[in-house]
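Record 1 of the preview.
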Amino acid sequence: MKEWKLEGVSGLEGPSLQSGNAGDEKEARNKAVYYLQFSSKTEWELRKKLAEQGFLPASVDSAIRFVKAHRYLDDGEYAARYIERNQRKKSRKQMVFELRQKGIDEETLNAAFEENPVDEEEQILRLLEKKGYRGEEAEREEKQKISAYLARKGFAYEAIQRAMINYARKNRD
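->
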C-alpha cells in the first residue's frame, strides 16, 4: 500500500514519491470518475475513498480538482439534492447531522437549506396522522409517547408541541 506520510523515513523523501507521478494521478482520476458513476459523493467521501485505495495526497488532490473542473463533484449540489430528497421524512436537525458526517461545511449547508426550505410543522403533522394520533382525545401517555418519537426524529420540543396543538384544533373543527 502507498504511504501518506513519507517525511522522516530515510531514503523515501524523493520528489517522485512526495508529489506522486503522472501515472498515479491518472489512475486516481480514473478511480474517482469510476466511483462517481455509481453514486454521488461529497468531496470528503471521495477523498477518503481514494486515500483508502492508497493514492498519495498529491494524486488525490489532482483527482478532486479534475472531477470538480468537470462538474462531477459539487458539495453544494449534493446537499441540495439530499435535502430535496429527504425533506418530507427527516427533520432539519437530522439532515444537518447526516450532511456534516459526509463532510459538508456550514456555509454550504446554509445555502442548501435556503434553496430548499424545510417545513418541520408540516412534517410533524404528517407523522401525527400516520401514527394515528387522536389529538384532544389522546391520553397523557399517548401524547408523551408520540412526543418522544418525534424528538428522537430530531424535531424541537416547541415545534412538536405547537404541531400537536394545531393537529388537535384541526381535527376538532
